[in-house]
Structures are given as C-alpha cells and as structure tokens.
C-alpha cells in the first residue's frame, strides 16, 4: 500500500516558495529518496506550507523519512511544525 509523508511548515514566505520552485525544477530528488510524487501547497496569507510526499511502500517511506529528517533546516520551506504518516486510501488523478 502507498504511504504519504505529510509535513506542515510555518513561516513560509512567497519568496521562499518561488525560490524552492526554481530549485526543484532544476534538481533531481536526493539520492535514495524514491518519492513517487511530491506536492507542495502554500497559503501565502498564513505563511504556511503543506508538503506531501508519496511512497510506494514501507521501505521507501522509511528511507525517505530518514533522508528528510537529516536535511539541514535551510533546505526546508520554513519551520517544520508537524510530520505525519498516512496510508493512501484512495487517489484519483487526471
């Protein structure tokens, strides 16, 4: 079953999101991350972001979680305020 790592960040400015968009378009995922999809949501008024990373299985989730937990704070969108693990119960894309 697919898993999602959902992370909430506070203190995320629109400038920081624009910078991350530029950086992420030009770079590959960190080695070993193996996320099947990454979604970044941003509320500019509240300066909050929600980052959802999808993984195909528990082993990939565990490896990705370790890599992401080891990232320097400067590489994240803002101050991490919450991290949660979810099973992906249903998903539809177009």
Concise summary:
The protein is an alpha+beta fold. The chain has one domain: Alpha-Beta Plaits (2-Layer Sandwich), CATH 3.30.70.
Describe, in plain words, how this protein is organized in 3D.
It is a single chain. The model has no long low-confidence stretch (mean pLDDT 92). This protein has 94 residues and is of the alpha+beta class. The chain has one domain: Alpha-Beta Plaits (2-Layer Sandwich). The longest helix is centred in the N-terminal third of the chain and has 13 residues, at 14-26. It contains 2 helices and 4 strands. The protein has helices spanning 14-26, 58-69; strands at residues 3-10, 37-43, 48-55, 79-87. The protein has a 4-stranded antiparallel sheet. Strand 2 (37-43) and strand 3 (48-55) form a beta hairpin.
Q: Unreliable segments (pLDDT under 50, ≥5 consecutive)?
A: none
Outline the biggest β-sheet: 4 strands, antiparallel
| Count of folded domains | 1
> What is the overall pLDDT average?
92
Strand order of the largest sheet: 2-3-1-4
Sheet/helix structural class: alpha+beta
Distance between the termini: 21 Å
The number of strands is 4
| Net shape | globular
CATH level 3 topology = Alpha-Beta Plaits
Tally the helices.
Answer: 2
- H/E order of the elements? EHEEHE
Strand content: 25-35%
């Amino acid at each position: 079953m697919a898993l999602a790592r959902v992370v909430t960040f506070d203190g995320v400015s629109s400038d920081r999101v624009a910078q991350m968009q530029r950086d992420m378009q030009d770079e590959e995922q960190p080695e070993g991350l193996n996320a099947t999809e990454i979604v970044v949501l941003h509320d500019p008024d509240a300066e909050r972001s929600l980052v959802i990373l999808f993984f195909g299985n528990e082993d990939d989730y565990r490896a990705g979680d370790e890599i992401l937990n080891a990232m320097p704070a400067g590489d994240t969108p803002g101050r991490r305020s919450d991290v949660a693990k979810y099973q992906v119960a249903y998903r539809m894309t177009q």
